[in-house]
Amino acid sequence: MFEFKKNLYKLYYRRKVILALLQQFGGSLTKLDLQKLLFIYTTEKTKNYFDFVPYKLGCFSFQSYQDLNTMVKYGLIAEVQNHWLSIDKRNYINELTYNDRLALTELYQTYKDIRKKKLMQYVYKKYPYFAINSIVAKDILNSEEFNIVQQSRPENNIMGLYTIGYEGKTPEYFANQLIKHDIKILCDVRKNPLSMKYGFSKNQLKNIIENCGIEYIHIPELGIQSEKRKNLNSLQDYKMLFDDYRKTTLTNAKEPLNFIENLITTKKRVALTCFEADYNRCHRNQVAQAIIKIKTKEYDIKHL
């Protein structure tokens, strides 16, 4: 039964990259070292198979962690204390492209004897942005290096209302957009915050962005019923949808609209989120326009 499940399991190429990296480094890596080596590999050596965010111990990929746990489920790797162990006998290194195999060899030759603190120091010094949320940066860097990390934190005190869609984005890329624009609060204006895409259902998204230092608030009162979103094929369809939305939902949504407007005046930088990449085809723009009409201080709408 176990072998049957393994054979049915779909192995994405990015997961083969993780397995090949583990095998290249002897079949076992600490969770911390794997994240740092995977970051270097995808950032310096090859394609961007994973995105990363500045996290508690530096660069971290939520997608890779999800992949690792999925591969544990299917018996490809094992989680032992703070290590990931490769237990599948298949040679995943040979299943990479030529350039990726070459890059993996170069990675191993460069970092085979560099682990833990030294590896963290290297990443923190070369990529200080990814250390801005680290709880150990001050302890492992000298004062000058730590100051550079602090200076890498995006800061913007200009009041603003932002909107952002997650269509076509990884959760890490999405979170980095918020961080780099110094968003303080993300307001999810979906009626039902569920997504087939990893990282964007309510609890997943809340966990990711709050671990990046951004508050998450779900405001379902501003969402659109899913049945109203069917058969949207033209700009005219969207126009009719949003005309109805303004006349019904927004007309009766004074309390949540005032709530968001108050967040902007107190926290300064707030973003509204929903699915669509194009804000013209998303009701978050209608929410933003409604807030602008009741604003008590001067600020603009910006679409990410």
Instruction: State the major sheet.
Output: 5 strands, parallel
Q: Quick one: overall form?
A: globular
% residues in beta strands: 5-15%
Give the helix/strand class. Answer: alpha/beta
Total strands: the figure is: 10
SSE order: HHEHEEHEEHHHHEHEHEHHEHE
Going across the biggest sheet, name each strand in turn.
8-7-9-6-10
How many individual helices? 13
Q: What features would you describe in this structure?
A:
- The protein has 304 residues and is of the alpha/beta class.
- 47% of the residues lie in helices and 13% in strands.
- The protein has a 5-stranded parallel beta sheet, sandwiched between helices. It has a 3-stranded antiparallel beta sheet with strand order 1-5-4. It has a two-stranded antiparallel sheet with strand order 2-3.
- α3 (31-45) crosses α5 (98-111), α3 packs parallel to α6 and α12 crosses α13.
- It is globular and about 65 Å long.
